[in-house]
Amino acid sequence: MSTQFDAVSVVKKGNVFFDGKCVSHSVLFANGTRKTVGVILPSTLTFNIGAPETMEIVDGSCTVSIAGGEKVAYAGGQQFSVAANSSFEIEAHTPVHYVCHFG
Predict the structure, then answer these.
(1) What is the rounded distance in angstroms from the CA atom of residue 79 to the CA atom of residue 74?
(2) HEC states along the chain?
(3) 40: Cβ–Cβ under 8 A, 6 or more apart, which residues?
(4) Of 88, 102, 97, nearest in space to 44 by CA
(5) How do the domains of the chain map onto residue ranges?
(6) Which CATH superfamily does the domain covering 8-102 fall into?
(7) What is the pLDDT along the chain (103 residues), one digit of tens a residue?
């Protein structure tokens, strides 16, 4: 997996969720795609999503349950996908650095 994105625009104002336990920034690509890059602090959070997402774990460790399913452990270098109009619960055991890929 790449360690950086080149030739992109970054939205300066961050997206702050769950009282600051999750903070991300939108990264805009020339081809019109958008990703978010962020950090989830140690906590347990539930995300309800509309569009399909793939969460790339860059660093840290967590346990994830997709749509109420079995809990699965993830760490840096791994990823998981969530279908549209679904949810996932993430328990961040350490700060989790991630890239969210939409679509």
Answers:
(1) 7
(2) CCCCCCCEEECCCCEEEHHHCEEEEEEEECCCCEEEEEEECCEEEEEEECCCEEEEEEECEEEEEECCCCEEEEECCCEEEECCCEEEEEEECCCEEEEEEEC
(3) 21, 22, 60, 62, 90, 92, 95, 96, 98
(4) 88
(5) 8-102
(6) Jelly Rolls (2.60.120.10)
(7) 678 999 999 999 999 999 999 999 999 999 999 999 999 999 999 999 999 999 999 999 999 999 999 999 999 999 999 999 999 999 999 999 999 999 8
- Cβ of 85: how many Cβ atoms within 10 Å? 11
**How open is the CA angle 63-41-74, to the nearest 5 degrees?**
25
Tokens of 5: 């994105």
